[in-house]
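Narrative of activities, Objective 1.

The group set out to show that a structural description can be obtained from nothing but a protein's sequence at a throughput compatible with the screening campaign. Below is one input-output pair from the validation batch, recorded exactly as produced.
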Amino acid sequence: MAALRAKIDSDQIQALELRVFPDHIVLQAQDPKRPTNVDQYLYRAGKVTGPVPVKLKGKGALADNLFPLDEIQLHFIPPVAGKALEQLRLENGVVKYVSVMRNLPTEMDVRLRVYVTSPRKDGSLMADVTGNLLPQNPANPKKPKRP
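Output recorded for this entry:
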């Protein structure tokens, strides 16, 4: 996180989404010099690359989707990922990534969503930013598609 903060060079980073993968992190954040723009940064093996421009889609206001990156504490992510694996119980399941973003259009709260994949089935689980699983959003395996 310190490397990302140093690269963006802003006192308060406003994030659109943070994706934490097993071997890298992707951050989409508001450009502090041009607030209508969002840039993407990649952290891998101790290095940050970017910015890469992000093409914004949708009708929502950017300001409604942003959240202060300082609100996110990465130490909550591994326990939530472990809980997702336990609850989803997917055969040979692995955590693909954890997404941190506002849960719009349902609510304004920032949520952690853990995406788990396996050879037979995929699923996800949602938690609040302190790692508490949300009971109203139990595991959501993807619906099967017709062959």
